């Protein structure tokens, strides 16, 4: 049934994803660049239906019911997204129409005042107008239930006029006012048929009046953060939305965030703001004239019903079956999404009625209903997306929430244990440090761009967003290496060579210049005679206290390697790097590795030490931990080769930083590998778990993961040479695309044999 219903509707053009023309044109009157198109269309549709409902031309349903033209629209979007300004921009095109409507309502009110004056034997009708018959305003803000009911009844005094309840802070109202819950109840009752029964109370003054056939509209806008992260609001929203609003509202969930253009000067910004005011003025005037003409046409017809063409009945039934099948077979039957989907045909019918009014048609035609389906389908996925947010686990909600409070510039945030409990991210404050660690571990896995740590006292979580960038910087100064190379060439003593290196070091304290560069260009640095550092030094003076900012690359100094520089180059083929031999170009086991990082790293010295050694350990490179102020030297000499890869990927730093922070918390500088013999045997026996990073290696990183596994097995767990070789063969054979045998033997086996 689903397939044939979909095919029928597709043939009618219901799923071509183009919004109805009048909705699209009305949405285009919102010129703000930060407002997503979907939100513009939802506001436009709400205002169009509100306008059409003013004429009270109910739809004459084929079962005999009189269905009012009205809409409830709920928009969840971020703060500062020009919500109120967007509504005002659309409403501006109806200004003349509402003035005409108000004038018509005033004339009806005057006639009623004159009738009452005559009945009372009074010659002056104005007092009756001022105190009794004066029309109520169409647009109101949230009020009490009695106030809203009274307002609807006041509008119902005359055959022209239908109200709009507007809230730009729906979530806030829901949190702190019971009136909003009562308002939701009223507009939900009135949505279907515009009817509300008398509410019986003991005191007559508290009884609500009956409402018959009265349309009422609502536009409710809120920040999703407020609903998602405030537990009390979340519960209220689920209850009220699920039971009352879900099936009745046009629901728009805006997840995209559009930014304003960058401005070089304030004058550019002023011009930009001015352009917003003038960009749509022509379209606003055009639509204003169109709606004024529609108003003049519809006022004499106010209160007369609109019929439904027979073809629309077929379309309605087809859309009903389609929605029923989608709700039953592709969605969870108990979900809000299924409930919303199963009632879309009714929302489409009401919107189609509004489009018929705007087209000055006396019946709803197929094109009106098809256009209405198009709009409903544009929003059809929003509830599924929002429901997924509502159903997220605490650590997922926490990771999302931390983004909303992080400083927009630094990307840092801190939240204490009491607020974590209040927002239901943790269940209890007992043993807080453990609870916070249990929260940040899965949050870190969920959020790949954030770094989480727990304070030493266990009362706070600190967060820092990783800022990925391609820009790098380098501090460098020329040096004279001629005497050093002469001593090396002449095979002078180690002491002589060491003294010459020390002399160079004493001259490499001042005069550093910091420049922005590309990672690829660092190969030029390595082919010259320079002292260099990845950090900026204050006033160009090397020193621990003079380091300014962070770095986008790291230098690993490998002095005692079991693999050659060329083998390391091959092993790191999936990472952007440069490798250069040290002062002795004939020693392939002593080299320097420059690695590009995916983000700028700015940390304390102790965390840097752990960060540095964690990277080296993961790459199976034997290094001494060096401070941030360490200076490195490049040497130019004919025949000194530079091995480079600059078209792969930088190292993702987040996990290394997390590990570095964890080690720092535990006052450790390296991970202890001094396992008891029994544990070593157990780890070696459980290969798939112990060596999981190697078994699950991604394409391109196989070589270095094999070296890591071999290192771990042989050096840390005490595996024999034969056991180590068997292990790496097993891992290589496990892969879908293993290393070819020749390459495997030359790059992996040869290194293991070299260790013995």
Summarize the biggest pleated sheet: 5 strands, parallel
The count of strands amounts to 22
Beta content: 5-15%
CATH class of the largest domain: Alpha Beta
CATH topology of the largest domain, by name, is Rossmann fold
Low-confidence stretches: 200-207, 668-672
Number of helices: 33
What is Rg?
36 Å
Architecture per CATH nomenclature, i.e. the level-2 architecture of the largest domain: 3-Layer(aba) Sandwich
**Percent of residues in helices:** 40-55%
Please give a structural write-up.
The chain has four domains: 2-271 and 307-387, Rossmann fold, CATH 3.40.50; 392-465; 467-671, no CATH class; 672-756, no CATH class. The protein contains 33 helices and 22 strands. The longest helix is centred in the first third of the chain and has 25 residues, at 95-119. β11 (450-454) and β12 form a beta hairpin. α3 packs across α4 (83-91) and α8 (170-176) packs across α11 (231-245). 50% of the residues lie in helices and 13% in strands. A five-stranded parallel β-sheet has the order 4-5-6-3-7, with helices on both faces. It has a four-stranded antiparallel β-sheet with strand order 14-13-15-21. The protein has a four-stranded antiparallel β-sheet with strand order 18-20-19-22. It has 756 residues and is of the alpha/beta class. The model is unreliable at 200-207 and 668-672 (pLDDT under 50). The protein is elongated.
């Amino acid at each position: 049934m689903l397939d044939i219903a979909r095919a029928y509707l597709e043939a009618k053009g219901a799923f071509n994803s183009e919004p109805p023309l009048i909705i699209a044109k009305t949405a285009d009157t919102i010129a703000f660049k930060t407002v997503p198109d979907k939100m513009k269309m939802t506001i436009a549709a709400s205002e169009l239906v509100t306008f059409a409902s003013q004429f009270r031309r109910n739809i004459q349903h084929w079962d005999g019911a009189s269905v009012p033209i009205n809409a409830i629209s709920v928009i969840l979007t971020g703060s500062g997204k020009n919500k109120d300004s967007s509504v005002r921009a659309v409403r501006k095109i109806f200004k003349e129409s509402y003035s005409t409507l108000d004038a018509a309502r005033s004339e009806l009110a005057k006639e009623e005042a004159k009738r009452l004056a005559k009945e009372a034997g009074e010659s002056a009708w104005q007092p009756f107008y001022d105190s009794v018959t004066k029309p109520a305003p169409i647009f109101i803000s949230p009020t009490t239930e009695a106030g809203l009911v009274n307002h609807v009844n006041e509008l119902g005094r005359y055959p022209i006029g239908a109200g709009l309840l507007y809230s730009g802070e729906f979530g806030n109202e829901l949190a702190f006012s019971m009136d909003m819950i009562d308002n939701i109840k009223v507009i939900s009752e009135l949505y279907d048929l515009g009817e509300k029964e008398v509410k019986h109370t003991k005191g007559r003054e508290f009884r609500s009046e009956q409402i018959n056939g009265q349309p009422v509209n609502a536009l409710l806008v809120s920040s999703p953060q407020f609903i998602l992260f405030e537990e009390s609001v979340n519960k209220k929203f689920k209850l009220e939305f699920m039971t009352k609003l879900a099936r009745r509202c046009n629901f728009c969930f805006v997840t995209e965030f559009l930014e304003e253009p960058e401005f070089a000067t304030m004058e550019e910004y002023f011009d930009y703001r001015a352009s917003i005011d003038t960009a749509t003025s022509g379209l606003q005037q055009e639509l204003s004239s169109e709606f004024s003409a529609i108003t003049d046409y519809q006022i004499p017809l106010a209160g007369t019903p609109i019929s439904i063409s027979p073809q629309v009945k077929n379309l309605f039934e087809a859309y009903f079956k389609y929605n029923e099948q989608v709700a039953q077979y592709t969605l969870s039957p108990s979900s809000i999404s299924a409930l919303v989907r199963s009632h879309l045909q009714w929302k489409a019918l009401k919107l189609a009625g509004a489009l018929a009014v705007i087209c000055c048609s006396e019946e709803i035609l197929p094109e009106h209903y098809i256009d209405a389906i198009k709009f409903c389908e544009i929003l059809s996925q929003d509830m599924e997306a929002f429901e997924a947010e509502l159903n997220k686990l605490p650590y997922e909600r926490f990771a999302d929430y931390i983004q909303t409070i992080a400083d927009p510039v630094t990307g840092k945030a801190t939240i204490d244990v009491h607020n974590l409990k209040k927002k239901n991210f943790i269940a209890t404050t007992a043993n807080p440090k453990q609870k916070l660690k249990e929260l940040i571990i899965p949050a870190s896995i969920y959020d790949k761009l954030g770094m989480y740590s727990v304070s030493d006292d266990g009362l706070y979580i600190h967060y820092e967003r990783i800022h990925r960038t391609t820009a790098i910087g380098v501090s460098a100064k020329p040096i004279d290496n001629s005497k050093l190379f002469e001593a090396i060439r002449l095979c002078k003593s180690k002491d002589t060579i060491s003294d010459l290196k020390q002399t160079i070091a004493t001259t490499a304290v001042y005069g550093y210049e910091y420049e922005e560069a590309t990672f690829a260009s660092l190969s030029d640095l390595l082919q010259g005679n320079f002292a260099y550092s990845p950090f900026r030094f204050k006033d160009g003076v090397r020193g621990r206290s003079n380091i300014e900012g962070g770095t986008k690359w790291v230098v690993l100094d490998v002095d005692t390697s079991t693999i050659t520089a060329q083998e390391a180059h091959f092993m790191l083929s999936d990472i952007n790097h440069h490798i250069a031999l040290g002062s002795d170009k004939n020693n392939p086991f002593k080299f320097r590795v420059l690695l590009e990082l995916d983000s700028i790293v700015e940390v304390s010295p102790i965390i840097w030490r752990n960060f540095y050694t964690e990277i080296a350990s993961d790459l199976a490179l034997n290094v001494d931990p060096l401070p941030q102020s360490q200076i490195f030297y490049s040497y130019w000499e004919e025949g000194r080769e530079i091995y480079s890869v600059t078209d792969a990927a930088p190292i993702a730093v987040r996990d290394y930083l997390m590990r570095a922070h964890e080690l720092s918390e535990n006052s450790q500088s390296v991970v202890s590998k001094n396992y008891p013999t029994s544990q070593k045997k157990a780890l070696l026996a459980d290969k798939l778990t112990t060596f999981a990073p190697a078994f699950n290696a991604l394409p391109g990183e196989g070589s270095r993961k094999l070296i890591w596994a071999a290192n771990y097995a042989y050096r840390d767990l005490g595996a024999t040479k034969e056991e180590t070789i068997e292990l790496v063969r097993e891992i290589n054979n496990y892969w879908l695309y293993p290393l070819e045998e020749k390459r495997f033997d030359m790059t992996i086996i040869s290194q293991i044999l070299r260790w013995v």
